[in-house]
């Protein structure tokens, strides 16, 4: 009887285990009545990168965190290039130089309060009491008080099977300088 109680308690504890995340506050974005206020030309390499605690990352390598990489468009970062962003109702148009021509990509998203939000991955696989997986990857794009582009990157991966649960969460904020055309 004691063994059944112990097994039941262990199962209950495993079912209640979960990971949570503190999300970066959107209050750092300036007021945005219309997403077209985000239109402009920006540097490809960020000025600063912050963690969820608003701390600048020490010793970060900016060439690893380019604007095009955050938008899932390329893994190669050219520190000298500039990126043109144009926002329409439900999409972002990104123009950037390639080896031979100017590339143009369209990414679907949605304007929220004071930012434009894009989901790259949103997956939920629940099988009650057997299996649970949640994967989310999104960016929020807005401007800060200095009119520089601010991108909040948030990624969550979580999985659960009986007796085991695991997950990771990444929260970063990137600031890209606006460039005169």
How are the secondary structure elements laid out?
Elements: H1 2-16, E1 40-43, E2 48-51, H2 67-70, E3 82-87, E4 91-97, E5 102-108, E6 110-111, E7 116-127, E8 131-143, E9 149-161, E10 164-176, E11 178-179
Antiparallel strand pairs: 1-3, 1-11, 2-10, 3-4, 4-5, 6-7, 7-8, 8-9, 9-10
Strand order of the largest sheet: 2-10-9-8-7-6
What's the β-strand tally? 11
The span between the termini is 76 Å
Order of helices and strands: HEEHEEEEEEEEE
State the share of residues found in helices, binned by percent.
10-25%
How confident overall, as mean pLDDT?
A: 77
**Shape by Cα distribution:** elongated
Figure out the total of helices.
2
> Which structural category fits the helices and strands?
mainly beta
Uncertain segments are 11-16, 18-22
Largest sheet: 6 strands, antiparallel
Please state the CA-atom Rg, rounded to the nearest Å.
Answer: 20 Å
What portion of residues belong to β-strands?
over 45%
């Amino acid at each position: 009887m004691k063994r059944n109680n112990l097994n039941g308690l262990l199962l209950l504890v495993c079912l209640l285990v979960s990971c949570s995340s503190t999300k970066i506050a959107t209050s750092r974005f300036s007021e945005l009545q219309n997403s077209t206020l985000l239109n402009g030309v920006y540097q490809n390499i960020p000025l600063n990168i912050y963690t969820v605690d608003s701390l600048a990352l020490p010793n970060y390598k900016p060439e690893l965190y380019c604007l095009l990489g955050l938008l899932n468009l390329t893994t190669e970062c050219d520190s000298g290039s500039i990126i043109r962003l144009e926002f329409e109702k439900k999409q972002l148009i990104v123009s950037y130089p390639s080896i031979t021509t100017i590339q143009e990509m369209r990414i679907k998203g949605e304007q929220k309060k004071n930012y434009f939000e894009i989901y790259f991955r949103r997956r939920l696989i629940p099988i009650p009491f057997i299996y649970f997986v949640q994967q989310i990857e999104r960016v929020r794009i807005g401007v800060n008080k200095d009119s520089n582009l601010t991108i909040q990157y948030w990624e969550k991966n979580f999985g659960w099977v009986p007796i085991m649960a695991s997950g990771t969460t990444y929260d970063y904020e990137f600031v890209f300088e606006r460039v005169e055309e």
